[in-house]
Amino acid sequence: MTSAEIDGEQQNGLTVSENAYRRMRSDIIFGRLRPKQKLKLDGLRDSYGISISTLREILNRLSSEGLVVAEGQRGFEVAPVSVENLKEVAALRLLLEAHALKQSFAAGGVEWEGDVVASHHKLATLERRMAAGDMSQTELWKRYDWEFHQSLISACGSQVLMDTHAAIFDKYLRYQMIALSFRGDIAASEHRVLLEAALDRDSKTAREVLARHVQGGLEHALAAGLIA
């Protein structure tokens, strides 16, 4: 075993194991590891610079999150996708986020407002670039999208709710990356209304817009025809 494979070694403040877990999880969510792709241990060991034992731990962890499927003696593969699962994920995201919005809007203070404004500014800037035809930063766009929606609910007062929403949002994001689902001015307009509703503490409007936002994203992803 090389020194890079030793659990507990630090990389950017993270253990090698945690760093590899985050990289692999990101590779699944952003489609670099495709649905139903076989995850061969020897190849992954070389790609992520970790031991086989650490790799198995990571794959089991990702399996518990529903991002990897254990195939018994045949090993592991990236979790498949389906229209039915996308609909379930979208419905659960809406349920969690709508509830968290109401709690967050009631409790958020000035610092929360500042975070919402700042995260929207980054997202809106990138959405304008993409609307103009620059699709070179899709991963950064989705990161900013995640940050904006997380900022909206960040004052909800429940870390469990935040963590659960983040896990579901990642699964929703995975489908968006597979379908390359960018709705242009429609989504950007919905984000602007969500920002205004947050500053006005208008949770009713925000939840109505969020429902359209999630449903629109679902329909747009399905229309692309890339989800088997």
Automatic annotation (TrEMBL):
InterPro entries the record matches: GntR_C (IPR011711), TF_FadR/GntR_C (IPR008920), Tscrpt_reg_HTH_GntR (IPR000524), WH-like_DNA-bd_sf (IPR036388), WH_DNA-bd_sf (IPR036390)
UniProt KW Kinase keyword: no
Statement: the UniProt record of this protein carries the keyword Transcription: yes
Keyword list, A-Z: DNA-binding, Transcription, Transcription regulation
Gene3D superfamilies on file: GntR ligand-binding domain-like, Winged helix-like DNA-binding domain superfamily/Winged helix DNA-binding domain
Domain HTH gntR-type, residue spans: 14-81
Molecular functions per Gene Ontology: DNA binding; DNA-binding transcription factor activity
Pfam families the record matches: FCD, GntR
SUPFAM superfamilies: GntR ligand-binding domain-like (SSF48008), Winged helix' DNA-binding domain (SSF46785)
SMART domains the UniProt entry points to: FCD, HTH_GNTR
TM spans (from-to): none
Protein name: GntR family transcriptional regulator, carbon starvation induced regulator
Organism of derivation: Ketogulonicigenium robustum
